[in-house]
Amino acid sequence: MAKLDHLGLQVADRSRSTRWFVETLGLEVEFEIPEAGVTALRDDAELAIFLNETRAPKVEATLYFQVDSVDALYGTLAARGVSFVQPPQVNSWGYGAELLDPDGHVVRLWDASSMKEHEKR
After folding, report:
1. What is the mean pLDDT of each run of 10 residues along the chain (121 residues)?
2. How far is CA 90 from CA 10, 37, 94, 97, 119, in A?
3. Which residue(s) pair with 40 in the sheet?
4. Under 8 Å CB-to-CB from 64, ≥6 apart: which residues?
5. 3-class secondary structure for the chain?
6. Residue 56, Cβ neighbours under 10 Å: how many?
7. Domain 60-121 belongs to what architecture?
8. What is the domain partition of the chain in residue ranges?
9. pLDDT tens track for 90-99
10. Would you say 82 and 24 are in contact if contact means Cβ atoms under 8 Å apart?
11. Contact 104/61 with Cβ under 8 angstroms?
């Protein structure tokens, strides 16, 4: 079986996107290659997201982040003024919240406990 190790995400402003992913989702900067316009971010599971700076990002992506509690994280982020497309609710993909990164990539937050609880309904 293959294991997803990293993925690339096209962004217009690497610094802005780095700040957003670090401050909003708690990802860590793994390394940067400024001359190549690349910043690698890492999550708790060691998956790396390569932010590739490009003048006009054309590829949209949907990222799913498993968190400890989607409701608690939503409350924390909303209190800090982070805008959400949808608060935690039942969606076609399950129970969770949805927001957009600075380039309009869809970021969906979910947790295993809430997902299980809401699939029983």
Report:
1. 84 96 96 96 93 83 93 96 95 92 93 82 57
2. 29, 38, 6, 9, 9
3. 31, 50
4. 93, 108, 110
5. CCCCCEEEEEECCHHHHHHHHHHHHCCEEEEEEHHHCEEEEECCCCCEEEEEECCCCCCCCEEEEECCCHHHHHHHHHHCCCCCCEEEEEECCEEEEEEECCCCCEEEEECHHHHHHHHCC
6. 6
7. Roll (3.10)
8. 1-57, 60-121
9. 988 889 999 9
10. yes
11. no
**How many residues can be counted in the chain?**
121
22 in Cβ contact with 16 (< 8 Å)? no
| Whole-prediction pTM | 0.86
Say how far apart CA 105 and CA 108 lie, in whole Å: 10
Confidence (pLDDT) at 120: 61
What homologous superfamily does CATH list for 1-57? 2,3-Dihydroxybiphenyl 1,2-Dioxygenase, domain 1 (3.10.180.10)
Measure the CA–CA gap between 49 and 61, rounded to whole angstroms: 12
Place of tokens 């989607």: 70
